[in-house]
């Protein structure tokens, strides 16, 4: 990768004359790779796992929120997670951090950069690069409203009567929000996600330069992975859907080119909650089907967005056939490209990626059951009217409701869903509330005013630690909730220990989905040339299943209802077995 590649991408985005003008200041910002720059350290192995959390995930007193999180992780992580995804930690005005006021500061409610540095001593840190939009309370937007030189074109604006019928909409509120400027005029600003989140206009080169500064600052601050939030919506062009624009792909390629040129050990992760084909197009190269997109490398990693709704459907309906068919068709990715395999997250379960993969009638029944279990449904606008966009819920309540029976049965059902995600090639990711076995924060949506709050509770650290230390409690103090938490965390520990011990879980290791007459079975065979093979069998049905994988030397395997069996084996026989 060299400067010519950067120049060519600038010319594609801005045209030759503007590219010639912006190249010198951009190269000055980028600088030269230092002689001691590290070699690329982007490889993912079976020993890696990814924890998603807010900086103030746990409430308490006497220390900063980030220090409190670090203290909890030092006691309970026990080697499970190598990557720590800190959701936006800047000063913000809404959306739990995704409406950023200042990209260079840490929210004083969380702590300071020294707290981030301390976490970086123990984890490979993941930062959010909220690049599509920012807060209306930022100094940038205030200068825009004031008409200050250099900020007049920082944000996307359109006429009041703008025809937005072709624009892809992820929400139901109006696309444009009207703001009064200091000179008495008004500006109709593009607001993809909320009236508090105004979209930047990257057709202005000053905006690009500023975000390259932010990008490099994150890397200097220790980010080993950058999550490109809502990146699909970056570039707006009238008459188009304003999603997955070729210039958006070129922007991701530009970040990649800069990272490669400077030999930065940073992984780019794109967040694009869209159908699978569009989602994997952000790998770039042969994965892009649009001939107008420049041929180049983009993200190292993409979210496996179809996985959560498919696993949810399997667990709720007892039918894993759609999950099996989809997983069997997943492409084997070349070295250096990875899926992020997640289920729950700080957001909800995106429904769009499941369309076409599950029969509409069957999936409709799953959504009805989900609502009965306490899920909320968020909508988005389409030409045909509002349609379901996202399921907002606690993952535990969806796949392991208390109606299943004992805490042991509930935990088994919950862990079976995560075992499915952990068995597939890629980097496994777990949301903090899933890791600690949280149920829904039912009061959250009313308290905070939005559906996603149902899965964003920030409980007291002392309460959580007491609930997790089940073995130290007296029988009288034990409750169903306490038992579930400790069983879930113990189960995660067993799964991650098994996974890290076997090279067959490396992302590049071959993967085969094994079919079964039993609809509830999801079986994955991971093979290794120089080590043990692994068979992962998850049973999403309500009955015990006897399953024959036809894998010598294995025979028929009995899997408990809502349970899982993982087996490491070679030609000499079974080497290790885990059953939950």
Question: What would you note in describing this structure?
Answer:
The protein is 32% helix and 18% strand. It is an alpha/beta fold and 580 residues long. Helix 8 (276-280) links the parallel strand 9 (267-270) and strand 10 (301-303). The longest helix is centred in the C-terminal third of the chain and has 21 residues, at 480-500.
In a few lines, what is going on in this structure?
By secondary structure, this protein is α/β, with parallel strands linked by helices. Helix content is about 30%, strand content about 20%.
What is the molecular shape?
Answer: globular
Number of helices, where a helix is a run of at least 4 consecutive DSSP H or I residues:
17
Q: Which consecutive residue ranges, at least 5 long each, have pLDDT under 50?
A: 471-481
Strand content: 15-25%
Largest sheet: 8 strands, parallel, barrel
Strand order of the largest sheet: 1-2-3-8-9-10-11-15
Q: Which class of secondary structure composition applies to the elements?
A: alpha/beta
What integer is the average pLDDT? 94
Blueprint of the fold:
Elements: H1 3-14, H2 16-30, E1 50-53, H3 65-76, E2 83-86, H4 113-120, E3 124-130, E4 133-135, H5 139-146, E5 176-180, E6 186-190, E7 197-199, H6 205-220, E8 223-229, H7 246-261, E9 267-270, H8 276-280, E10 301-303, H9 307-317, H10 321-328, E11 338-341, E12 349-350, H11 360-372, E13 376-380, E14 387-392, H12 395-399, H13 407-423, E15 427-431, H14 432-435, H15 444-448, H16 461-468, H17 480-500, E16 511-514, E17 521-526, E18 533-539, E19 545-547, E20 557-559, E21 564-570, E22 573-579
Parallel strand pairs: 1-2, 1-15, 2-3, 3-8, 8-9, 9-10, 10-11, 11-15
Antiparallel strand pairs: 4-7, 5-6, 12-14, 13-14, 16-17, 17-18, 18-21, 19-20, 21-22
Helix pairs in contact: 1-2, 1-7, 2-6, 9-11, 9-13, 13-17
């Amino acid at each position: 990768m060299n400067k010519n590649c950067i120049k060519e991408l600038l010319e594609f985005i801005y045209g030759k004359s503007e590219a010639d003008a912006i190249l010198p200041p951009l190269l000055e910002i980028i600088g030269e790779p230092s002689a001691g720059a590290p070699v690329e350290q982007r490889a993912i192995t079976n020993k890696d796992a990814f924890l998603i959390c807010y900086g103030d995930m746990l409430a308490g007193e006497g220390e900063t929120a980030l220090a409190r999180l670090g203290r909890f992780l030092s006691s309970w992580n026990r080697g499970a997670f190598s990557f720590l995804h800190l959701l936006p930690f800047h000063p913000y005005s809404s959306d739990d951090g995704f409406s950023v006021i200042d990209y260079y500061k840490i929210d004083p409610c969380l702590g300071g950069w020294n707290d981030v540095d301390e976490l970086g001593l123990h984890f490979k840190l993941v930062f959010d690069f909220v690049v599509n939009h920012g807060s209306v309370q930022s100094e940038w937007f205030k200068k825009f409203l004031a008409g200050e030189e250099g900020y007049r074109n920082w944000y996307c604006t359109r006429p009041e009567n703008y025809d937005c019928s072709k624009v892809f909409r992820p929400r139901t509120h109006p696309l444009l929000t009207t703001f009064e400027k200091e000179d008495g005029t008004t500006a109709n600003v593009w607001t993809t996600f909320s009236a508090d989140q105004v979209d930047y206009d990257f057709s202005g080169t000053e905006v690009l330069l500023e975000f390259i500064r932010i990008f490099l600052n994150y890397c200097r601050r220790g980010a080993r992975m950058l999550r490109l939030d809502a990146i699909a919506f970056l570039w707006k062009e009238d008459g188009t859907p304003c999603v997955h624009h070729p210039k958006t792909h070129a922007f991701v390629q530009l970040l990649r080119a800069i990272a490669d040129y400077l030999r930065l050990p940073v992984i780019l992760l794109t967040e694009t909650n869209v159908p699978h084909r569009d989602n994997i197009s952000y790998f770039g190269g042969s994965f892009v089907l649009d001939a107008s997109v420049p041929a180049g490398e983009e993200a190292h990693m993409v979210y496996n967005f179809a996985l959560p709704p498919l696993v949810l459907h399997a667990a709720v309906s007892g039918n894993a056939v759609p999950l099996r068919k989809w997983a069997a068709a997943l492409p084997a990715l070349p070295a250096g490209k990875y899926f992020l395999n997640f289920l729950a997250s700080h957001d909800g379960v995106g429904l769009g990626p499941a369309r076409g993969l599950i029969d509409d009638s069957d999936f409709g029944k799953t959504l009805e059951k989900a609502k009965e279990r306490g899920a909320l449904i968020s909508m988005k606008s389409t030409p045909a009217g509002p349609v379901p966009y996202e399921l907002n819920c606690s993952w535990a309540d969806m796949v392991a409701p208390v109606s299943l029976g004992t805490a042991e049965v509930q935990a088994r059902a919950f862990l079976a869903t995560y075992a499915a995600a952990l068995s597939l090639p890629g980097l496994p990711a777990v949301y903090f509330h899933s890791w600690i076995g949280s149920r829904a924060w039912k009061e959250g949506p009313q308290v905070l005013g939005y559906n996603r709050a149902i899965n964003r509770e920030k409980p007291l650290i002392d309460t959580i630690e007491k609930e997790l230390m089940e073995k130290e409690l007296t029988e009288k103090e034990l409750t169903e909730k306490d038992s579930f938490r400790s069983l879930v965390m113990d189960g995660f520990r067993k799964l991650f220990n098994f996974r890290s011990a076997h090279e067959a879980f490396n992302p590049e290791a071959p993967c085969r989905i094994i079919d079964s007459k039993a609809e509830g079975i999801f079986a994955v065979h991971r093979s290794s040339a120089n080590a043990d093979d692994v068979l992962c069998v998850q049973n999403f049905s309500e009955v015990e299943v006897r399953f024959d994988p036809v894998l010598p030397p294995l025979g028929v395997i009995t899997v408990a209802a809502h349970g899982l069996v993982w087996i490491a084996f070679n030609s000499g026989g079974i080497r290790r077995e885990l059953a939950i």
